[in-house]
Design a protein that fits this description.
The complex is a heterodimer of chains A (309) and B (365).
Chain A: H1 4-7, H2 26-37, E1 41-45, H3 49-54, E2 66-68, H4 74-90, E3 99-105, H5 106-111, H6 114-123, E4 128-133, H7 173-178, E5 184-188, H8 193-205, E6 210-215, H9 219-222, H10 229-238, E7 245-248, E8 251-254, H11 264-268, H12 283-306
Parallel strand pairs in A: 1-2, 1-3, 3-4, 4-6, 5-6
Antiparallel strand pairs in A: 5-7, 7-8
Helix pairs in contact in A: 2-8, 4-6
Chain B: E1 3-6, H1 7-17, E2 20-25, H2 32-41, E3 48-51, H3 55-66, E4 71-76, H4 78-94, E5 98-106, E6 112-116, H5 121-126, E7 135-137, H6 142-159, E8 162-168, H7 169-173, E9 175-178, H8 237-249, H9 253-256, E10 259-262, E11 269-273, H10 275-290, E12 295-300, E13 302-304, H11 308-315, E14 320-325, H12 331-338, E15 342-347, H13 356-362
Parallel strand pairs in B: 2-3, 2-4, 4-5, 5-8, 7-8, 11-12, 11-14, 14-15
Antiparallel strand pairs in B: 1-9, 5-6, 7-13, 10-12
Helix pairs in contact in B: 1-2, 1-6, 3-4, 10-13, 11-12
The chains are: A alpha/beta (309), B alpha/beta (365).
Chain lengths: 309, 365
């Protein structure tokens, strides 16, 4: 964990005054990431909530160089910046050590932006990609994405009397990224601040491409009270819906193991997007979600054991 | 029973009434509610709504489903329309029917996501590379959002071509009362009259060869490469020329061209506009007519193919045509090519509507 007394000096790199919805944890995520990264950081961002709310004329929340290119290509944009930095560095035209961070929501990362992200990782650019995963296209009005969980209601996977929300299971993007043989990939939650900031520190120090997928509960899209965001981010981890773990050079480590079993219903029942699952005819979906969670958790534990020797 | 619908909703009604049963889409403001409505309505009709991973895939899925004989549509806005250009060219080359709704917003790039523009007029014609036929329809009312969608599907099937509906943010969320049609004239695509072994998917004896749907025993090759009648790639100049010439002439312009002409009999001045801005232009014309000014109104409903002949004919007795469009000057160039009178431009691309007052302010009589 980076020293808190040190990192708070960088509290002004992503400032307040942005227009994020009440209770949105994504600005907290960005602020904490930049606290660790420090002022010598370049940020590129995909089109999405955080792009829209952080740069409304004549204001900006960003006290670091910032590029918004298009919906899908923050990883491509940062590739160009990082390559030129390396060239300048080699020629001695720049002395500073710089960090490069690309940011995207789940739509811009899991769906339209996966090509740019995969390409940048394969080419080996030194950058950290942070996906703030609010599990749907919240910026355009809550349409399903490939990060939207099974059974969830969105405006393009509406829950009705016949179809009970999203019929497909979410894409496991973190595992796809690990499969790139990336030096550092992790999942995090804003409820575990120290864990997240430590992961940012590790990611930036890994010397190559790195990736952090952090869950970002959305009060509007998930339908809960704005004061519950962090609590729901905590429940996501406690119910093992969103395990927080890292894969360092492929070596898995679950960074927080819940001490006691908390059933997935505790996570689902506090969100309006899952309300229909509690009807008797949809209960089987909750069972299915529970089964998937167990499968994935067991798999993670096995992977962790595999590398513990 | 009349319905109070937005432009986006009217497009959905038109598509469903036309028998569209497949929608491949991706969220983008200001078109997202078309996808949302489709996701609610299509499954109930035995149709398919698929949310794809981006706009490239959205149109790709529509082309795949269209080849099975299902009427297919996608809807997007500027940035997504840019991504679709590759597949629009493919649809033109492989002659696959599909309907693409472009709800225009300010551009270029991410532009003005929640504000209107008419900046995609030229892109809708030439956005994809290479010579290609295309039909672009521009509604100016909620009723036309409905009726032109029906027309788009018919043209698309009849001429085996992508058809683009150019709406914009104003029409998308404007609401008007409309009466849905009780009877819809649906022209389905031609089915081959020959047995599978004699079938040529790009039979040059036809201007628009019949298209066999997948699954009916007709095996054929589809490619984006230049191909001969069998569908297989060729670079033989004679065959290439034959294909290019057929593609260039397959859409009968006189049949497809549609133009709304009003108050032109004695007009000396004319306001020319398309889409939502034509509403402002028409209001301006009415206000000038009240003052006994001899002002006419021209609005192409089919903007591509462009009505050059009609403009040429109509402009002969005019002193000046004012072209009003919500961009920095796109369709005005086409009017200049055709008109035999002065052509002046009233336009802007600042995200705000061109009001009747602004038009009147710029018209000198």
């Amino acid at each position: 964990m980076p020293k808190l007394m040190e990192v708070v000096k960088n509290d002004n790199l992503f400032t307040s005054g942005h227009r994020a919805c009440a209770g949105c944890p994504a600005p907290i995520i960005l602020r904490q990431a930049l606290m660790v990264a420090g002022p010598n950081t370049v940020v590129s961002i995909n089109t999405g909530c955080m792009e829209v709310v952080s740069t409304i004329d004549p204001f900006t929340s960003w006290n670091v160089p910032y590029i918004h290119e298009a919906f899908e290509n923050s990883a491509a944009a940062i590739s160009g910046v990082e390559s030129c930095y390396e060239a300048f560095k080699k020629k001695g035209k720049i002395k500073k050590d710089m960090n490069f961070i690309a940011i995207g929501g789940d739509g811009g990362t899991y769906d339209i932006g996966i090509q740019a992200l995969s390409g940048a990782i394969e080419r080996g650019h030194r950058f950290l990609y942070i996906c703030y995963d609010n599990e749907a296209y919240m910026n355009t009005g809550i349409q399903r994405s490939s990060a939207t969980p099974y059974g969830s209601h969105t405006t393009t996977s509406p829950a009705g009397s016949v179809i009970p929300g999203k019929k497909q299971k979410r894409k496991d993007l973190t595992e796809i990224i690990v499969a790139h043989n990336i030096p550092y990939a992790a999942q995090a939650s804003p409820a575990y601040r120290n864990d997240f900031m430590k992961k940012v520190e590790k990611a930036l120090a890994c010397g190559g491409p790195s990736f952090i997928n952090i869950i970002s509960p959305c009060p509007l899209g998930w339908r809960f009270n704005p004061d519950e965001s962090i609590e729901i981010a905590r429940l996501a981890v406690q119910t093992k819906f969103w395990p927080i773990y890292e894969a360092e050079n492929g070596k898995y480590k679950i960074t927080h193991k819940p001490r006691e079993e908390v059933d997935i219903e505790e996570f689902l029942k506090v969100q309006g997007r899952f309300a229909h699952l509690f009807k008797p005819e949809n209960r089987h979906i909750i069972d299915e979600i529970r089964k998937d969670i167990k499968y994935k958790w067991d798999r993670l534990e096995r992977l962790e054991r595999l590398y513990s020797d | 029973m009349p319905l109070l619908l937005s432009g986006n909703e009217a497009i959905v009604e038109g598509a469903l009434a036309s028998g569209c049963r497949m929608f491949g889409g991706y969220p983008i403001t200001p078109s997202s509610d078309i996808a949302e409505k489709m996701s609610l309505r299509l499954p109930k009709m035995g149709g398919k709504f698929i949310q794809m991973e981006d706009e490239i895939a959205s149109l790709g899925a529509c082309l795949g489903s269209s080849l099975t004989g299902i009427r297919s549509m996608t809807a997007t806005s500027g940035p997504g329309f840019s991504l679709m250009q590759e597949h629009i060219g493919f649809a033109a080359m492989a002659e696959i029917p599909c309907v693409i709704v472009d709800v225009q917003r300010g551009g270029p790039s991410t532009g003005l996501p929640t504000y209107p523009s008419q900046g995609d007029v030229m892109q809708s014609r030439w956005g994809t590379h290479g010579d290609h036929p295309i039909i672009v329809l521009v509604p100016f009312s909620i009723l036309e959002c409905y009726t032109l969608t029906i027309k788009a599907f018919n043209y698309s099937d009849k001429f085996r071509t992508p058809v683009i509906i150019l709406s914009d943010e104003i029409l998308a969320h404007l609401r008007e009362k409309i009466e849905l049609l009780k009877e819809i004239d649906i022209k389905v695509r031609n089915f081959p009259e020959v047995p599978p072994e004699e079938y040529l998917p790009f039979d040059s004896r036809y201007l628009v060869p019949p298209l066999a749907p997948y699954g009916k025993g007709y095996r054929f090759h589809i490619t984006g490469l230049v191909h001969d009648e069998t569908g297989f790639p060729t670079a033989d100049p004679e065959k290439v020329r034959s294909l290019q010439e057929r593609l260039a002439s397959k859409i009968p312009e006189e049949e497809v061209r549609d133009i709304d002409v009003r108050y032109m009999d004695d007009a000396k001045i004319c306001l020319f506009s398309i889409g939502s801005i034509a509403r402002s232009a028409l209001r301006a014309v009415l206000q000038l007519r009240e003052k006994n000014k001899k002002v006419g109104f021209i609005r192409p409903i089919t903007v591509w193919p462009f009505p050059y002949d009609e403009i040429k004919r109509l402009s002969r007795d005019l002193d000046v045509i004012y072209v009003c469009e919500m961009n920095m000057g796109q369709i005005v160039g086409e009017v200049e090519r055709a008109a035999e009178c002065d052509v002046r431009f009233i336009g802007k691309a600042d995200g705000t509507i061109i009001s009747p007052g602004e038009i009147l302010h710029n018209v000198s009589i």
